[in-house]
Amino acid sequence: MSKSVLRGLRAAALTGTLVLGSPLQSALAAENPIKLGVLEDQSGDFAAATIGKVHAIQLAADEINKAGGIMGRPLELVPYDTQSDNTRYQEFMRRVLQRDKVDVVFAGFSSASREAYRPIVDQFNGFAFYNNQYEGGVCDGHMIVTGAVPEQQFSTLIPYMMEKYGKNVYTLAADYNFGQISAEWVRKIVKENGGKMAGEEFIPLGVSQFSQSIQNIQKAKPDFVVTLLVGTAQASYYEQAASANVNLPMASSVNVGQGYEHKRFKPPSLKDMYVTTNYIEEIDSPKSKEFYAKFKAKFPSEPYVNQEAENSYLAVYLYKQMVERAKSTKREDIRKVIALGDVCMDAPEGKVCIDPKSQHMSHTIYLAKVGADHAISFPKTWEDIKPYWLGEAGCDLTKKDPMAQYTPSNPPPKP
Amino acid sequence: MDIATHVFSALYQFGDAFAFLVLSACGLAVIFGMMGVINLAHGEFIMCGAYVTAATVHAGLPLPLGIVAGTIVSALVGVLVELAVIRHLYDRPLDTIVATWGLSLIATQGTLIMVGSTMAGVGTPFGSFQVGDYSYSIYRIVLFCAALGVLAGLYALFNWTRFGVLARATIQVPHMAAALGVDTRLVYSLTFACGAGLAGLAGGLYAPTMTLVPTMGATFIMEAFVTVVIGGADVFLGTAPAGAVLAVVKSVMTSWQGQLFGQIGLLVAVIIVVRVLPKGISGFVLRERT
């Protein structure tokens, strides 16, 4: 490799400009495009789960541009690689809002990243979509969340698991806001259903060796383990637990649907893993098959079409619908459309609608079970599960915008 | 649960932590201890070994041969890197840090672009065994034995072979060694290759137990550097005892309070050792001896 190539590669790696080619930028050189900033991790610890999100946004933008754009204006993507690094999110969020002056930003995988950039969106009066499942509770008029939240993923999953396997629950979670708050939800739901926490352990991000944690789990003798492990390093748990013959059923809101661990690890390390997800490529419906075929036609080497790819894809179409109905790209005009309460679409997963109170989305929740051969089956489906918790707890963005995140132990202040 | 179960489980956790620390650190220790080069691309040599191992196993080779292939390819890459970059920076030790850091960025991003964001795992061989209430992975015992084997092999290599004698002579007084007809450049190349190969071996050994992604090297780095910093410049008097001490700290803290405290324990141990023994354990032992 010549020196100049090396230098180029290094410069590209350092500045994060190795974005995947987006031919649509040249295809439609119209006067006044609608600009969509894309801040996703295309490298680093989270890249495996998030490159598909960028591709999904490119796919949707291509389709929309081929069909004439949004109100006749082409959709232009402004992508940056945030490198699984929270400070990159802050840096690039400032850049897309101040220098590139985008109309809307699609940003973020980890909850730590979201909480890193959200104050900047609020400060510069931006408009951002978070297209990712998470621990819930963000009540912020500058944000729309298309991912699933605990009342959709845990209120379905945990009671099912407790009924099927027993009431002793062990949580193994990533040690940051997502894992801590999700574990709080698990604790709450287990208690409400008359169960008991056999134990909890929080694992720092980036840890890859689990021998001691495995032994702690065996000592606690739970009926099943809730694995809320995030990032590729922590995914090593499954292989190590399988080789130590832990042989306990697992429940998760993040595995399979994000990191396609059932494809990456050799069977049967994910045997009896149950996941609630609003989309994975195995879902056998005409809409899902059509989406999967379109995705594979554009990105044939995509390893997996995951939940967050679908969230990102449908978010582009939701944005199109809202802009066309508001006849404006201004956030306040768009929020008036959301307040009508009928912003819905037929997504690959099924019908989804935006809830005006929380600006979160209703979902079809599929219970995916991983078999001993790592084939996926769907023992249960819940249709139209609403993101009700924030609204019931007192968040109403149509009236007041607190720009805050709430949890069960820290709910919105009562009026 | 009886005493024997507890003792065995403590020993198993110690051995597991010891193996991880020693195998991650050996390659780094050889390159740092023998050559004074701080190799920030160490994690990427580990990743290289793991990727080659997984690729050859997918291609149909049995796992042990795959691990050998991973080791050899990493060593060869080490030779190339030494020839192309490190060789020109021996009298500029600080610049080698920047250069190897750059290499690590290139390797991570290059792998991501060329091989993709993940690689399918190969599965852990051998299954498990039961002691008392706990079941354990047999492969983890293999890793512990491999760590002991690597230490013994290195000892033999540097003390009982002609290459070992020449390498130690070159490291102690390079000019004198050159005057006596030792090809010091070749010795440096081979030593670097040996360090890179050991990193590749660690990657190959851990490949069946881990997620294969371009950033996987980073998960070894903290443990590797902590072990080398505590151990000091000598592989045998440093890395092995440092691995043992840290393994005790890590396994005790982790079983007591969880993974986070295991990591805190490691870093506190480093702070204490660096404060009390600035040259690490081996520096302390060697000073006592003279």
Question: What features would you describe in this structure?
Answer:
The complex is a heterodimer of chains A (415) and B (290). Chain A is of the alpha/beta class and 415 residues long. Chain A folds into two domains: 3-148 and 284-363 and 385-405, 3-Layer(aba) Sandwich (Rossmann fold); 151-277, Response regulator (Rossmann fold, 3-Layer(aba) Sandwich), CATH 3.40.50. Chain A has 15 helices and 17 strands. In chain A, strand 15 (363-370) and strand 16 (376-385) form a beta hairpin. Chain A is globular and about 65 Å long. Residues 1-6 and 11-30 of chain A have low confidence and may be disordered. By secondary structure, chain B is mostly helical. Chain B has one domain (3-214). Chain B contains twelve helices and two strands; from the N terminus they run H-H-H-H-E-E-H-H-H-H-H-H-H-H. Chain B has helices at 3-35, 42-58, 63-84, 93-115, 138-160, 162-172, 174-179, 184-206, 218-231, 235-257, 259-276, 280-289, and strands at 128-131, 134-137. Chain B has a two-stranded antiparallel sheet. In chain B, a hairpin with a 2-residue loop joins strand 1 (128-131) and strand 2 (134-137). Chain B is globular and about 65 Å long. The mean pLDDT of chain B is 87. The chains are: A alpha/beta (415), B mainly alpha (290). The interface between A and B is large, with 47 and 54 residues.
